[in-house]
């Protein structure tokens, strides 16, 4: 696996190693400079924060200059917190215990353990703890459907190494027996030397959707999907800037938006098509920005508007929400869930994958999800 790393990946790995080792050595020296005098817990904690902030800013600037990537900056800041500050904090707590200052050692020890434990949870556990989220939509137009329909939304698979996790997700979706599966973009994110191999493994995942959903699987492409042939050889149908009607008449109308149009406001022509269709309509775009015109008190037409892209933020601050969403829709909408705006229903899925490349591979208070809709009574 390491032999497949590209030069940019090797370069980032080398910088992160230098950041970690240099931070540990300089941090230990800086924090030991007060040794020999009785330093209070809060002043010591302030020195710890000062060093961490300074070291993080320096390396964030270095990585931003070298890679011009916000995700690489987030990754180096994660390293500073987990692999520099946490060990230094634990080390200081241990040194105080040895010197008989057990009460003073509680704060640095607790902070260090919390940072390490939180990172291990966010890195090892939560990214694979998939949640199935159920919603029922029972409206006048879904009442017009000749039969109820179960719809699965599988957003942002976003893998760089298709393996057991992705296979388990697809098997879980098959077990839910959806009538229709919708894929709102971002599928395989890896560098060119490995893309062809991962593309073939990704295509093979659809063999696990057995029995095949009776109304099919439909997809739009996302930010990391430059290859328009990604679904060649599969039964998946692309609907970028296309439409389809599935189910018994009047059926469910699918309106797909290309990546570019998923960031452009919903057009009056699409609203007219939704209102003219006697059955229910589902609009699919990768980014959720296209729904901005209907996010008001009056809302929009009676339809379901789907998107992915945000991953729910991947990291959520309790009581605040995701600090980063990379979209212009309100934070509460970007975080996920089903939201009502008049007759319109908007759902931004948290997705099942994570941002790859230079980004930190973590989820915290933001479990991956498969979204299930039951349309009609």
Helix-strand blueprint:
Elements: H1 7-32, H2 41-67, H3 70-98, H4 102-125, E1 131-137, H5 140-143, E2 149-153, H6 164-175, E3 180-183, H7 192-204, E4 217-219, E5 237-238, E6 243-246, E7 252-256, H8 268-276, E8 280-284, E9 304-307, H9 331-334, E10 338-341, E11 344-348, E12 369-375
Helix pairs in contact: 1-2, 1-3, 2-3, 3-4
Q: Notable features of this structure?
A:
alpha/beta; Purple Acid Phosphatase, chain A, domain 2; 377 residues; elongated; six-stranded mixed beta sheet
- Stretches where pLDDT is under 50 for at least 5 consecutive residues are none
Distance between the termini: 50 Å
The percentage of residues in β strands lies in 5-15%
**Main sheet attributes: strand count, strand direction, barrel closure:** 6 strands, mixed
- Total separate domains: 2
CATH top-level class of the largest domain: Alpha Beta
One letter per element, helices H and strands E, the order comes to HHHHEHEHEHEEEEHEEHEEE
CATH topology type of the largest domain: Purple Acid Phosphatase, chain A, domain 2
Global mean pLDDT: 93
Q: How many distinct helices? A: 9
Number of strands: 12
User: Could you state the oligomeric state of the chains shown?
Assistant: single chain
CATH architecture of the largest domain: 4-Layer Sandwich
Global geometry:
elongated
């Amino acid at each position: 696996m390491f032999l497949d790393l590209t030069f940019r990946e090797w370069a980032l790995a080398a910088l992160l190693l230098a950041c970690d080792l240099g931070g540990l050595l300089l941090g230990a020296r800086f924090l030991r400079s007060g040794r020999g005098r009785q330093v209070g817990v809060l002043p010591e904690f302030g020195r710890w924060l000062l060093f961490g902030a300074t070291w993080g800013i320096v390396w964030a600037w270095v990585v931003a200059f070298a890679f011009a990537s916000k995700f690489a900056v987030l990754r180096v800041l994660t390293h500073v917190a987990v692999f520099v500050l946490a060990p230094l904090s634990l080390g200081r707590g241990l040194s105080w215990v040895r010197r008989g200052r057990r009460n003073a050692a509680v704060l640095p020890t607790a902070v260090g353990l919390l940072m390490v434990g939180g990172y291990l949870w966010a890195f090892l556990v939560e990214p694979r703890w998939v949640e199935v989220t159920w919603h029922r939509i029972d409206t006048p137009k879904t009442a017009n459907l000749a039969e109820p329909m179960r719809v699965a939304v599988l957003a942002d698979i976003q893998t760089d190494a298709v393996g057991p996790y992705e296979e388990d997700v697809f098997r879980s979706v098959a077990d839910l027996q959806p009538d229709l599966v919708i894929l709102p973009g971002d599928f395989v994110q890896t560098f060119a030397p490995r893309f062809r191999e991962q593309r073939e493994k990704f295509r093979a995942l659809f063999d696990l959707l057995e029995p095949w959903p009776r109304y099919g699987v439909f997809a739009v492409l996302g930010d990391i999907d430059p290859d328009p042939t990604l679904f060649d050889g599969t039964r998946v149908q692309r609907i970028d800037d296309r439409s389809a009607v599935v189910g018994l008449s009047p059926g469910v109308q699918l309106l797909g938006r290309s990546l570019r149009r998923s960031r452009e406001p919903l057009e009056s022509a699409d609203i007219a098509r939704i209102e003219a269709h006697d059955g229910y309509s589902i609009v699919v775009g990768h980014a959720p920005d296209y729904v901005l015109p209907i996010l008001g008190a009056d809302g929009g037409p009676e339809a379901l508007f789907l998107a992915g892209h945000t991953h729910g933020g991947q990291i959520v601050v309790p009581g605040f929400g995701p600090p980063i969403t990379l979209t212009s829709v309100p934070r509460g909408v970007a975080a996920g869930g089903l939201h009502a705006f008049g007759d319109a229903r908007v759902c931004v899925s948290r997705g099942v994958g994570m941002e790859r490349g230079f980004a930190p591979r973590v989820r915290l208070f933001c479990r991956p999800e498969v979204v299930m809709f039951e349309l009609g009574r």
